[in-house]
Every structure is written in C-alpha cells, then in structure tokens.
Design a protein that fits this description.
The protein contains 4 helices and no strands. The chain is mostly helical. The protein has one domain.
Length: about 120
C-alpha cells in the first residue's frame, strides 16, 4: 500500500499543479467554462487527497485513491474538451464525478469511524 500511497501523493501534487495552470489558461487564454471548472475541481480534490493521505487508517487511503481516479477522469475530460475540442471518452466526466462522490462518502465514513471522543 505504501507504493500506491506514494504514487497517489505524486498524482495529487500534479493534479494541484495542473489546477493552477488550468486556472491561468482559463483566465488568460479564453478556453471557456470547462477549463475553469476543471481547474477548480483539480485544486479542491488535490487538497482533499493530500489530507486523506495524512490520515493513519486504510479507509482514508483508499478514499484518496478513489478521489484521485475520479478527479483524473472528470478534470481530464473537461480539460481535453476545452483544449482539444473532444472528450477523453464517452461519459468520462459523469463517471469521474460519480467516482469523486464515492471518494467523498468514503472519506466521511473514515472520519466518522476515527473521530475520538473528547
């Protein structure tokens, strides 16, 4: 699991960096709403993944992997539509969105199971 966590951390960093770059392109390049949305989702979900990877339990680690996969599908599809004019794959963005939702739910379950009483 350590290799997967390290790879997930690396991808989260790249996702965050891509989010900043996409925001700059969206603001200055006239690529439209899809690229702006992709940048926002990339930044938000990169932050979530980094936070999840800091958690000690396996459920949070699995949630991080799920979120990263969903974000790659969702953001990748929107960015490709904006920059190249075609989709990554049929239903990539909606599928990625559902995967991100599942990751958020699992992240919440992880927190629910691991919150310590005062």
């Amino acid at each position: 699991m350590l290799i997967i966590s390290r790879l997930t951390a690396l991808i989260a960093g790249l996702l965050g960096a891509s989010g900043v770059a996409a925001a700059a392109l969206a603001a200055h390049g006239g690529y439209g709403e899809n690229l702006r949305i992709a940048s926002e989702f990339a930044l938000i979900h990169a932050t979530l993944v980094i936070a999840l990877l800091r958690a000690p339990d396996r459920t949070a680690q699995i949630a991080a992997v799920i979120v990263v996969l969903g974000a790659l599908l969702f953001c990748g599809d929107l960015a490709l539509r904006a920059l190249a004019g075609h989709a990554l794959a049929p239903m990539a963005a909606p599928t990625g969105g559902l995967v991100m939702i599942a990751g958020w739910v699992l992240a919440g379950i992880s927190l629910f199971l691991n919150v310590k009483r005062p």
